[in-house]
Amino acid sequence: IGFVIERVSAILLVVAPTTMAISIPLIGLWTTSTAAKGGLLVRQNLDAATKLEVMALGKTGVLTTGKLRLEVITLSQSSSVASADELLALAAAAESKAQHSIASAIGEAARLKNLALSQALNFESISGVGVTALVDGRRVAVGGPAMLTGLNTQVSFDDVVRAADANQKGFTVIYVVVDQVLCGEIQLADQIRDGAADAVRVLAARGIDVCLVTGDATGVAEFVAKQVGIETIFAEVHPDRKLGIVKQLQVDGKCVGFVGDSIDDASALAQSDVGIAFGAGGDVAIESAGLVLINADPLAIPRALLLAKRSLSKRRQNLAWTIGFSSIGLVLAAGALSPIGFELSPVVSAVLVSLSTVIVAANGQLLRR
C-alpha cells in the first residue's frame, strides 16, 4: 500500500499541468512586452507573419518620409494665371481643407512665401484623384493624372514631356486646373527613408518577394523602386484597387503582407494575411491592421517578422520540453526502474516539476535579447 501511494503521489506531481499551463501564455506575454519596447503594437496573432511569402509596401510614408517639399512651379502655355505665386495661392486655397501630405506641402510652401489665401467654397475631395473648390469665383482642381482624365482636360505635348521628366527624377507632379483649363504643374519631392533599402534587402534574403504598391505615377514608382531594390511595381493604383492587388497576390494560397500608413490603405490592410500600419498610421489604418509599427523605421518590418518567428520557435521548444519531461517523468514515477532499485520519490518529483517551470520561464526570457 505504501509503495502504491508513493507511486501515485509521484505520478500526480509529475503530470501536473503546471508547466504546460504557463509555458505558452508566458511566451505570448513576453512577446507582446518585447514588441512594445521595440515600438510594435500586436493587435492580432503573430503566427501568420511566420508564413509570409509576399510583402507589398506602400511608397509615401513607408519607403519615403511622406514629408513633401515644393521643388518647381511651372505655368502651362494655355495658363490663365499670371504668375507662379498666383498658381500656388490658388492651389493652396483649394487644398486648405484637405488632410494629406500633398496638401500640407503646398500649404507650407504658400505660407513660406507669405501668400494671402482666399476662402475655398464647395470643397470636394476624391480619394486618390484630387480636390476641387471654388476660389474667388473660379473652379480650381488640384490633383494627379487621374484628375486630368476625369475632367477631360487638354494637356499639351510640352506639359506631358515636362511631367514625364519630373517623374523620372522621382518628383510627384500635381496639376492645377482653373475653370477646366490646365494652368500649371507643381513638382513635389519626397525623401527615401534611411534603412528602406536595407529593409527590402533583408526581406528578400529571407525568401520574401517584395513589391511596391502606390498611387503615384509610374516614373516616380520606378525611381523609388530602383533606389530601394524592388523589381515588382504596381503604380498609379487607385485606393479602391489596392484591395484587388492584394487578392491578386494571394492567388494559389500565398501568404501576403501589406504595409500602409493611411486611410487609403485600410481595405488592403484588412484583406492581407498580415496587415501592418506603419508609423502609427491613420485611425482607420490601425483598426484594419494586425500589427502597428509606432516607429517609422523600415527596418522595423523585418524585425517584427523575426520576432514572430522567434516567438513561435520558443513556444514549440517549451511545448516539446513539457511533453518530453512529462513523458519521461511519468515512466520513472510509475516505477519502471524499480527492479534495478531506482524510484522517483514524490519529493524529487515536486522539485523536478518546479525546475521544469523555471526552465520554460528562462527560455521565454531569451526573447528579450
Order of helices and strands: HHEEHEHHEEEHHEEHEHEHEHEHEHH
Placed side by side, the strands forming the largest sheet appear as 1-13-12-11-2-9-10
User: Which class do the helix and strand fractions yield?
Assistant: alpha/beta
User: Which regions have little confidence, pLDDT < 50, spanning 5+ residues?
Assistant: none
- What is the global morphology? elongated
Beta-strand percentage range:
15-25%
The helix fraction, in percent, is: 40-55%
State the separation between the terminal residues, measured CA to CA. 51 Å
Describe this structure in words.
By secondary structure, the chain is an alpha/beta fold. It contains 14 helices and 13 strands. It has helices at 2-14, 18-37, 59-63, 84-95, 101-112, 145-151, 157-168, 196-205, 218-228, 239-249, 266-271, 283-288, 300-333, 346-365; strands at residues 40-42, 54-58, 69-75, 120-126, 130-135, 138-143, 172-178, 181-189, 209-213, 232-234, 256-260, 274-278, 291-293. It has a seven-stranded mixed beta sheet, sandwiched between helices. Strands 3-8-7-6-5-4 form a six-stranded antiparallel beta sheet, sandwiched between helices. A hairpin with a 2-residue loop joins strand 7 (172-178) and strand 8. The longest helix has 34 residues, at 300-333. The radius of gyration is 29 Å and the shape is elongated. The mean pLDDT is 85.
